[in-house]
Design a protein that fits this description.
Order of helices and strands: HEHHEE
Shape: globular
Structural class: alpha+beta
Distance between the termini: 45 Å
Number of helices: 3
Helix content: 25-40%
Strand content: 5-15%
Length: 103
């Protein structure tokens, strides 16, 4: 049996979405939060989809812990996710949920 010399297939990014892998270091850490709004929005969609489940409720410490896995400034990322509508929170700020709307 001969081995294939073709490189492994990588999954293609979703149509209409730019890949955000260049924003992360080899260790999976975010190198910087993008300043450009459109690029930051792409990152936020990626974070919401990969770190949070739609039907689950999270506490603020849980949201912070999830965001801290990619960047130390979890409060900035949390604010961006809230203002972009990707995460919602109760008025008292005790619980958070991923938005059910997709982009």
């Amino acid at each position: 049996m001969s081995q294939s010399t073709e490189p492994p297939q990588q999954s293609a990014p979703r149509p209409g979405r730019r890949d955000v892998s260049d924003l992360f270091s080899g260790g999976g850490r975010l190198t910087a939060i993008p300043r450009k709004t459109a690029r930051r929005e792409q990152l936020l969609v990626h974070l919401a989809e990969t770190l949070f489940t739609v039907e689950r409720t999270y506490t603020e410490p849980e949201v912070n812990d999830a965001l801290r896995t990619v960047h130390e400034d979890c409060s900035a990322l949390r604010r961006y996710l809230i203002t972009s509508g990707l995460l919602t929170r109760t008025r008292d700020g005790r619980s958070y949920q991923r938005s059910t709307t997709t982009r």
